[in-house]
Amino acid sequence: GTTTNGDYLLPFKTGAFLPRCPVLPVIVRYPYTRFSPAWESMSG
Q1: What is the reported pLDDT for 41?
Q2: Longest dimension (CA), the chain
Q3: What average pLDDT is seen over the chain?
Q4: Residues of the chain with pLDDT > 70: what percent?
Q5: Residue 2 in contact with residue 12, Cβ under 8 Å?
Q6: Name one GO molecular function term (predicted).
Q7: CA distance linking residue 9 with residue 4, whole number of Å
Q8: CB-based contacts of 12: which residues, under 8 Å, 6+ apart?
Q9: What is the dihedral of CA 1, 29, 38, 16, to 10 degrees?
Q10: What is the DSSP code string of 1-44?
């Protein structure tokens, strides 16, 4: 599989799935008043 960083198509890393352990999905919600966890850029 593949994934993207927004500019390039990258190979999907499968290392986390090699042990074949169950995965527990988690959802984290933040109010976007002062901080957005989706924003990755930092200036300075």
Answers
A1: 59
A2: 41
A3: 75
A4: 66
A5: yes
A6: lysophosphatidylethanolamine acyltransferase activity
A7: 5
A8: 1, 2, 3
A9: -30
A10: -EEE-SSSEEEPP-GGGTT------------TTT--TT------
Residue located via tokens 């966890």? 37
pLDDT at 18 over 80: yes
Q: What distance lies between CA 28 and its chain's CA centroid?
A: 12
24, two tokens: 């527990």
Instruction: Report the C-alpha gap between 8 and 16 in whole angstroms.
Output: 22
Residue type, 30: Y
d(CA 41, CA 29): 20
